[in-house]
Amino acid sequence: MKFASDSLLLRSVSSSDLVSKWMGESEKLVSNLFQMARESAPSIIFVDEIDSLRGQRGEGNESEALRRIKTELLVQMQGVGHNDRNVFVLAATNTPYALDQAIWRRFDKRIYIPLPDTKARRHMFKVHLGDTPYNLTERDFEDLAQKTERFSGSDISVCVRDVLFEPVRQTQDAMFFVKTSDGLWMPCGPKQSGAVQTTIQELAGKGLAAKITLPPLSKMDFYKIMARQKPTVSKSDLEMHERFTKEFGEDG
């Protein structure tokens, strides 16, 4: 992925992008990446999932190819013989404690990015919903944020994606529909004013398939999904990150 402007070049790579099955090719890829950054300075090199290069050098289970990649990366980051003042290297990992110490020590700052707080989670729910119709109030979004403590951004994304299917499920299982002011048929409860006992199959059989609309999302749709979804980050994971930050890093 590349972003270019008049004054800055940003290249983002995953550690897997630097691995080749051909002897010597991986080191060349690392060298070429830094050479390109130097020629295009000021530049930022962002290495995602740098934990793919995990393991201490010299470990018995470390392949020769991986050792060469790590050695070349260390040499290039050291910048011996080069003017790298305008080349900025960033990396991301979920397991900093598993990295070779020589690698993470090459980074002047080791910043801990914590899980999203309540305010951030509230905003994420809105962002992932986008233009999807919903009946949630600001207080409902605040409640969702409060109930998703320890959820990562990915957890919230998965939650919303699952919730987006709820109106489809409701429509498929509905036994009652009501005709809206726009002339569309929307699933409803049996006690709702104007409710007609029918199914989506019966409406489709009458040629009204194009006239069926999904109900807007409600907070109950979220509660239903959240009742079975758990955060993917454990308390022990957080404690490990905080311990690493206390010893070797700094808060973001």
Automatic annotation (TrEMBL):
Source species, domain of life = Eukaryota
Record InterPro entries = ATPase_AAA_core (IPR003959), ATPase_AAA_CS (IPR003960), MT-severing_AAA_ATPase (IPR050304), P-loop_NTPase (IPR027417), Spast_Vps4_C (IPR015415)
- Give the SUPFAM superfamilies listed for this entry: P-loop containing nucleoside triphosphate hydrolases
Q: Which of UniProt's keywords are assigned here?
A: ATP-binding, Nucleotide-binding
Domain (Spastin/Vps4 C-terminal) spans 185-249
GO biological process terms, alphabetically, are: endosomal transport; vacuole organization
Q: Does the keyword Glycoprotein apply?
A: no
Q: Keyword Ion transport on this protein?
A: no
Where does the ATPase AAA-type core domain lie?
Answer: 11-115
Q: Which GO terms describe its molecular function?
A: ATP binding; ATP hydrolysis activity
Record-linked PANTHER family: AAA DOMAIN-CONTAINING, PROTEIN SUPPRESSOR OF K(+) TRANSPORT GROWTH DEFECT 1
Q: Which family does it belong to?
A: Belongs to the AAA ATPase family.
Name used for this protein in its record: OLC1v1032310C1
